[in-house]
Specification:
heterodimer, A: 114 residues, mainly beta, 7-stranded mixed sheet, 53% strand, globular, B: 113 residues, 6-stranded mixed sheet, 5-stranded antiparallel sheet, 11 strands
């Protein structure tokens, strides 16, 4: 079966712009979580969506937002981009019953802010 | 406040020897621990996990040990192989709370020929 698909793979944006990243979970997975990976901070939790509702949120500013559609696909949006937002953004999907234990990660979107 | 800590950013081990990766945590409510492996340009892949009711879980060359009193877990890889060169993330979750995974910063393992 197809894995978790994240698009685009690479993105270069200018400070002040906004960006939208997309994540298509494994078929049948209804939970989607987003993480930010940076060299200094490792993997940091952004938010989790289940059945179009945000269930958990990490400690990120309001510039970071997301949503989930009825087909479980999820998008995350970052507005007013800052240089420090440059990172690998990872999406993970899981079956609801498995929760965090059943995470399958996508390959990520590498965002560079210049 | 970093709840999951991997204090060694990198580790080099000779091929065929044992690799030991360490992880400490501060939240005594964590009840499930996981190790993920990550290659460059790929997402992390699940390696092995352990519930807080156990102190050891083994899967082939990989064994995870949990010491709850010390809030410490370790991943043993034996024998180490070249394909084990990757970044290893320790992670923890609290099932009865929100179940989200908290990751450490990772340890880069280099297997030397």
């Amino acid at each position: 079966k197809a894995g978790v698909t994240q698009t685009p793979r690479y993105l270069i944006k200018t400070r002040g712009q906004q960006v939208t990243l997309s994540c298509s979970p494994i078929s049948g997975h209804r939970s989607v979580s987003w993480y930010q990976q940076t060299p200094g901070q490792g993997l940091q939790f952004l938010f989790e969506y289940f059945s179009e509702t945000q269930r958990n949120k990490g400690n990120f500013p309001g510039r970071f937002s997301g949503r989930q559609f009825s087909n479980s696909r999820s998008e995350m949006n970052v507005s007013t981009l800052e240089l420090g937002d440059s990172a690998l953004y990872l999406c993970a999907s899981s079956l609801e019953a498995q929760g965090a234990r059943g995470y399958t990660f996508g390959s990520g979107t590498r965002l560079t802010v210049v | 406040d970093q709840q999951v800590k991997q204090n060694s950013p990198s580790l080099s081990v000779q091929e065929g020897r044992i690799s030991i990766l360490n992880c400490d945590y501060t939240n005594s409510m964590f009840d499930y621990f996981l190790w993920y492996k990550k290659y460059p340009a790929e997402g992390p892949t699940f390696l092995i996990s352990i519930s807080s009711i156990k102190d050891k879980n083994e899967d082939g060359r990989f064994t995870v040990f949990l010491n709850k009193s010390a809030k410490h877990l370790s991943l043993h890889i034996v024998p180490s192989q070249p394909g084990d060169s990757a970044v290893y993330f320790c992670a923890a979750s609290e099932m009865n709370r929100d179940d989200k995974i908290i990751f450490g910063k990772g340890t880069r393992l280099h297997i030397l020929p």
